[in-house]
Design goal:
CATH architecture of the largest domain: 3-Layer(aba) Sandwich
Strand order of the largest sheet: 3-2-1-4-5-6-9
Shape: globular
CATH topology of the largest domain: Rossmann fold
Strand content: 5-15%
Largest sheet: 7 strands, parallel
Radius of gyration: 19 Å
CATH superfamily of the largest domain: NAD(P)-binding Rossmann-like Domain
Order of helices and strands: EHEEHEHEHEEEHEHEHHHHHH
CATH class of the largest domain: Alpha Beta
Number of helices: 12
Mean pLDDT: 87
Distance between the termini: 53 Å
Low-confidence stretches: 34-43
Number of domains: 2
Structural class: alpha/beta
Number of strands: 10
Length: 276
């Protein structure tokens, strides 16, 4: 029997990597995200979280779903509506590390609860912080590395940073053989939990110039709406929630997870040109 996967966030960091690994398999790649315009193009399936009227046709024929949570306040309600349309599909939800321990009213926990309540078959992936966020300005608009100062709002607590390509490797394996992972939740991390100071030392060695870690000022955190909305996430980071290290990538993805030093070496030019 032929199976078809529907991948939401087909142009996002993780979604793109999932699609690359599923090349050759029947896949419906969704684009549109939270955009209010969704026009069929590039052979992708239009999917707009703001327009539920198009969802049913978008997911038609798919029996396996890679579900990126929409970054919207009403995500739990939107996810519930979508799940009602794919009752028989196996849904792989990309959540976040530690979400299962959050209070039941928390946004991330509510999305997971909708999944386990509505879907007959599901798997939850709970990744740590993305390594790619270190080099993408839109994740930290005021810059992470500016004038030799690494500004990450995690305090001295370690984080088990993970490469999105490793998350995708785990997701692709589950999408190909979901029965073995039915109703399971996996924490997905890199090989080590590292502090901001360790990241700064790694960057110093790679760039050949001193880099120092420093907590972003309150003015920076409060002056940007996106960063302000992530204050709870940063507080969790400081408490050590994201320090847990697992072997999920090696066990399910079939390869050792990408390390911080390997990532820094690969993206050295990006760090060298980090915007101010």
């Amino acid at each position: 029997m032929q199976h078809t996967a529907f991948v939401t966030g087909g142009r996002g960091k993780t979604g793109r990597s999932v699609l690359e690994l599923l090349s050759g398999d029947p896949v419906l790649a969704a684009y549109g995200g939270t955009s209010r315009r969704a026009v069929q193009r590039d052979g992708l399936v239009a999917f707009d979280w703001h327009d539920p009227s198009g969802w049913r046709s978008a997911v038609a024929g798919a029996d396996r779903i890679f579900l990126m949570r929409p970054d919207l306040d009403d995500a739990p309600d939107l996810v519930r509506q979508l799940l009602d349309m794919v009752a028989d599909a196996h849904v792989v939800l990309l959540s976040e590390q530690g979400a299962g321990a959050l209070a039941s009213g928390d946004w991330a926990r509510r999305v997971e609860e909708e999944l386990v309540t509505r879907a007959r078959h599901w798997t939850i992936l709970r990744p740590s912080w993305f390594l790619q966020s270190l080099v993408e300005p839109r994740d930290f608009p005021h810059g992470i590395l500016v004038d030799g100062v690494l500004r990450l709002p995690a305090g001295a607590a370690p984080i088990a940073w993970v490469d999105v390509r490793d998350i995708a490797a785990v997701a692709a394996e589950i999408l190909r053989d979901p029965e073995m992972h039915d109703r399971a939740a996996y924490t997905v991390t890199g090989p080590d939990a590292v502090t901001d100071a360790q990241i700064a030392a790694e960057l110093s060695a790679a760039l050949g110039t001193p880099v120092h870690a420093q907590e972003p000022s309150a003015a920076i955190l409060e002056g940007d709406e996106m960063l302000r909305s992530m204050s709870d996430l940063f507080a969790r980071a400081r408490s050590g929630v994201f320090a847990e290290v697992t072997d999920t990538v090696e066990q399910l993805g079939g390869r050792p997870p990408i390390s911080l030093d390997a990532f820094v070496a690969e993206h050295r030019d990006s760090f060298a040109t980090s915007p101010a």
